[in-house]
Specification:
Elements: H1 5-25, H2 31-55, H3 61-85, H4 89-114, H5 125-143, H6 152-182
Helix pairs in contact: 1-2, 1-3, 2-3, 2-5, 3-4, 3-5, 4-6, 5-6
Length: about 190
């Protein structure tokens, strides 16, 4: 396996997760804001690594595997931080919807790939929109401190609600696309 810049960016996104967590908990001024900045930089590499890999023809099987894993780990870790910091039923439900959807769609994509129908559950514009809202919401909630009169955390919270709605919509869109395959062979493994 060749270590290309796109692959290093993906690996770096995974490596950024414990640093974001450490910064979040450091008892020094602006630590949360530093955590947010690193989270945003790591989030941007999600787009950049794929774009570079396609542009430079450096796509790899390992990169294709690690990229979505890195994205999900980054989001899950950030949601756990936020929920631990400010526990509440609404935030717990939002986190559960977002994390549950990621698990369900990952499993669906794996299953569809086994059937040779992965393209029917390829990333859609709705999924990309969901990701944009989700990353923005989490970043604002990590920042937490108001910017002048702007209640940053509350804006992020509202965007996380929008993200959860988009999360459900995109999940149902993927399930609808996969439904014809799901109604297939009744002798399939039901483990």
């Amino acid at each position: 396996m060749q270590l290309t810049l796109p692959l290093l960016l993906t690996i770096g996104r995974v490596g950024a997760i414990p640093v974001v967590m450490l910064l979040f908990y450091l008892p020094v001024p602006y630590a949360r804001q530093a955590a947010m900045i690193l989270f945003v930089l790591a989030s941007v590499t999600d787009w950049l690594d794929g774009w570079l890999a396609r542009r430079w023809q450096q796509e790899s099987r390992f990169g294709a595997f690690l990229d979505p894993v890195a994205d999900k780990l980054l989001v899950v870790a950030a949601l756990i931080l936020l929920l631990y910091d400010r526990p509440g039923i609404v935030l717990a439900l939002l986190a559960t919807v977002i994390i549950g959807r990621e698990i369900a769609i990952s499993a669906l994509r794996e299953w569809m790939a086994e059937l040779g129908a992965r393209k029917s559950v390829a990333v859609s514009w709705l999924g990309k929109l969901k990701t944009g809202f989700q990353m923005t919401a989490i970043a604002l909630m990590l920042w937490e401190q108001p910017l002048g009169e702007l209640p940053v955390y509350q804006v992020g919270y509202a965007l996380l609600i929008v993200s959860a709605v988009l999360t459900l919509q995109s999940m149902f869109a993927y399930l609808r696309a996969a439904w014809p395959q799901m109604q297939g062979d009744s002798d399939a493994d039901h483990s």
